[in-house]
Amino acid sequence: MVSGNARRIRLLACDMDGTLFRSDLKISPGVQQAIATAQQAGIHLVLATGRMPAAARPFVDLLHLSGPQIYYNGALVSTPQGEQIFHLPVQTDVARRVVEYARQSTMHVNAYVGDEIYVDRLTPEAEFTRQLNRVNPVPVGDLIPFLERAPTKLVIVRLPKVEEGLISRLAADFNGSVSVSSSVPQYCEMINPGVDKGKALRSLAERLGLSMDEVAAIGDGDNDLTLLEAAGLSFAMGNGTERLKARASRLVGSVEEDGVAQAIEQIL
Description:
Radius of gyration: 18 Å
Oligomer: single chain
Largest sheet: 6 strands, mixed
CATH superfamily of the largest domain: HAD superfamily/HAD-like
CATH architecture of the largest domain: 3-Layer(aba) Sandwich
Strand order of the largest sheet: 8-7-6-9-11-10
CATH class of the largest domain: Alpha Beta
Order of helices and strands: EHEHEEEHEEHEHEHEEHEHEHEH
Strand content: 15-25%
Helix content: 25-40%
Shape: globular
């Protein structure tokens, strides 16, 4: 990983949950002001999130973001106007196997197709999803025949949180046919193994004519590892995982301490 030169940074890729905002889904005034200052200085802010565009849109609007954003942990890069820069969904046959696997273990699955969340039926897990994403899941009765169109992402939702070892077990059982990670404690997120946040960031930087030395990234979870590894300058939040902190160029405060604002201050 290149250590980077903060004075050259022209793009900042920022994770959302646990980085940009707390569990209350609110961006603090200090972070909002820091982002506005960075934008005035000519730094582009790019959201790099596991969320779908519809769930990220209120924050895109709040922060006045106009360029391409990274969604679904890197499986989709698109503009706020809906122009797709990159998209690689889960293969249909794999998606159906995930649904059947979850059904045999009595686990709830969200299927993200287009800008909608589809579920077998409305459950407490679906309600948790609605509150987290501010998007109403659509019940279809049976996801398996419904998934004729490949989903961009699948999520197994566990309440109150994902059991220890479940993510590694899913990765082993699906043997590389999906990439499994978690951006919030209740989610096992599955995307096409050919994509990750880091690849999406490199693709976006190339499109914008930037070298990776001109790119910074900040996150808190293991699903942000590839994002930070791709960037020339990387920041781990104080509330981040130990794996992430070990890979980052620099550490900043937790989300409660406006770590994003601290990172921007260092960049500027």
